[in-house]
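Structure ticket #2291
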Amino acid sequence: MEAVELRVGFVGAGRMAGGMARGLLRAGKVPASSILASAPSDRNLEAWRDLGCRTTHCNLEVLQESTLVFLATKPHVLPGVLQEIRPAVGPHHLVVSLAAGVTLQKLQRLLPAGTKVLRLMPNLPCVVQAGAMVFARGSGASDEDAALLQNLLTSCGLCEEVPESYINIHTGLSGSGVAYVYLFAEALAEGAVKMGMPGGLASRIAAQTLLGAAKMMLETGEHPAKLRGDVCTPGGTTTHGLHQLEKGALRATVMNAVEAATQRACDVGKD
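Resolution: structure written out below.
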């Protein structure tokens, strides 16, 4: 299945699906005329039409018109959607689920035997093509299918194939982790405001600080502890600031947050 032949469908047209579509379009991976999105109402579809994509209210039409199909519905809605589209799923389809907590085993049980199915977990920065995504494949998906998905989604950010057991961990680390980072950025900026800096300027500097730190981690490959040590000097401002964070148990609290969100992702799969 070559990318030039791809017809991409989205069952569900929310913010995450739209961000992924914009990434594909901006990277020139797929023309807008080859993307079809479905949703029950026009509330989300107008933005897709503005991109030049085709839209429909019929999920079966997406299967009939597409070869690569992203299932981007809420987890509690997905079983009903799978029952609806099952008769239209064929051996030429590559089906990718974005639904949190819905396992490959369940997907394969609800789809025809041998369906090429993968499970993908993106995060919100995919909407600005700076996401972190992981995916796992079912028994019917080949190396070629995995390579195709990874090649397409690099336009939306980092994309790695992992064992399925890592996907819920990724939810706790990165899917939910984006919110932890926003909270930290908010606290950074509020600290600066407390000390007299205007709020808008403080927020911009906090965001750039996080962006620069993340870029150094990615580009140097250094462990964050090493990079943190590089900022510190004996008796300096950073050492005094880090002491306060350690007194507040920042490290343990963040680890606990990742654990709690991961466990919740596991629980969602059992509901």
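Closing remark: Strands lie at 8-11, 35-38, 54-56, 68-71, 94-97, 116-121, 131-137, 157-161.
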